[in-house]
Design a protein that fits this description.
One of its GO terms (cellular component) is mitochondrial intermembrane space. Helices cover 79% and strands 0% of the residues. By secondary structure, it is mainly alpha-helical. The chain has one domain. The longest helix is centred in the middle third of the chain and has 43 residues, at 43-85.
C-alpha cells in the first residue's frame, strides 16, 4: 500500500474498492430470512461471517490510511527542512504545499472511515442483533 500512497488517485481508488463490503452491507443483510423462513438459512453464521468481513475491512483500511499519513508526514518534514535551507526554491515550495494538502485529505479520510464504520455497524446491529452479538 506504501506505493499507492505516492499515487494519491490510485490510493483513493484502492480505498473505494476496499469499502465495497460496507457499500454492499444492505444487500448482504437482505439475505437474512424473515421470521417465516428462519429455518432455511443459518442466520447466526451469516451474521458472524459478515461481522468478520466488516472488521477485517475496517482494520485494513484504517491501517492503510494511517500508513499513508505517516509517509506523507515524513515527506512533509523533509520538504519543510529543504524549504528552510532553500527559501527561494519555487519547486520545493510548490511540492511542500501539495504535500500539506495531501496530508489534510488523508487525515479527513480517517474521519470518513469513522462515519462509514459507524453506519455499517449500526445497519449490521439492526439486522443481526437477534442472531449474533459481537464478542461471542
Amino acid at each position: 500500500m506504501a506505493a499507492l500512497c505516492l499515487d494519491f488517485l490510485g490510493f483513493q481508488e484502492a480505498l473505494k474498492k476496499m469499502r465495497d463490503v460496507d457499500d454492499k452491507i444492505i444487500y448482504a443483510l437482505n439475505a437474512l430470512p424473515t421470521e417465516s423462513f428462519k429455518g432455511q438459512v443459518n442466520s447466526e453464521s451469516t451474521c458472524r461471517d459478515l461481522y468478520a468481513k466488516l472488521q477485517e475491512s475496517h482494520l485494513a483500511r484504517q491501517e492503510s490510511i494511517r500508513s499513508c499519513i505517516t509517509i506523507s508526514a515524513s515527506n512533509l518534514k523533509q520538504l519543510r527542512e529543504k524549504r528552510e535551507t532553500q527559501a527561494d526554491d519555487v519547486d520545493t515550495d510548490s511540492k511542500f504545499r501539495a504535500e500539506q494538502r495531501k496530508l489534510r485529505v488523508l487525515q479527513a479520510e480517517l474521519n470518513v472511515e469513522d462515519i462509514i464504520k459507524e453506519r455499517s455497524y449500526k445497519t449490521f446491529n439492526e439486522r443481526c442483533r437477534s442472531y449474533f452479538h459481537a464478542g461471542q
